[in-house]
Write a structure and sequence with these properties.
The chain is an alpha+beta fold. It has 4 helices and 10 strands, in the order H-E-E-H-E-E-H-E-E-E-E-E-E-H. It is 20% helix and 30% strand. The longest helix has 12 residues.
Length: 185
């Protein structure tokens, strides 16, 4: 039997992603990715931003994610339109010539203006097959700076600076200091 051709993404989702494009040129597409939309399929997700863009542009020979964002995160996502651009952008990200800024609403009032978290993180699998990230001495080094921008009655708005870029680093480090991300599961 022939492999099953993937179905088209729902029209509302395709339209949403199309409306989120904030810049496009011959080399890159920049998308203001909404929260709750994955960047790629997998783990029970049928469509991510990349699959939606490929479905919208069947004539495009090359569309690849330059980097990733968690499904729950909103923010700027870059997609390369050719292999040379993808390699160049990966080099830019690795060289630290690009600065990524994150804003996070943390539960509770942090007293420090800057809170640095330097604890290693490790990916672990549960018995049910889920993959989690935990603080673990045997994990990879992870360093996060939380710069408090504004205090609210029961929360603190923080600009987050990632020195390393581990999976779920912001949410795990925030939970580790007992100030988890607001609305985070």
């Amino acid at each position: 039997s022939s492999p099953k051709k993937p179905s088209k993404p729902p029209e509302w989702l395709s339209e949403l992603i199309g409306n989120c494009i904030i810049h496009e040129d011959d080399y890159l597409i920049a998308i203001n990715k909404p929260s709750s939309v994955a960047v790629h399929s997998g783990s029970g997700v049928q469509y991510g931003v990349i699959e939606i863009l490929r479905a919208q542009r069947p004539e495009a020979h090359f569309l690849e994610l330059v980097h990733r964002l968690d499904r729950a995160a909103s923010g700027c996502l870059l997609i390369a339109k050719d292999h040379k651009t993808l390699r160049s952008m990966h080099d830019v990200f690795k060289s630290s010539r690009i600065k990524k800024n994150y804003l996070a609403l943390l539960k509770g009032r942090l007293t420090d203006t800057v809170r640095t978290v330097d604890v290693p993180l490790k990916k672990v699998s549960t018995e049910s097959g889920d993959r989690l990230v935990r603080v673990d001495k045997a994990g990879k080094q992870a360093l996060t700076h939380f710069h408090i921008q504004e205090h609210f009655r029961v929360a603190s708005l923080s600009r987050v600076e990632l020195v390393t870029g581990r999976t779920h680093q912001i949410r795990v480090h925030a939970a580790h200091i007992d100030h988890p991300l607001a609305c985070d599961e």
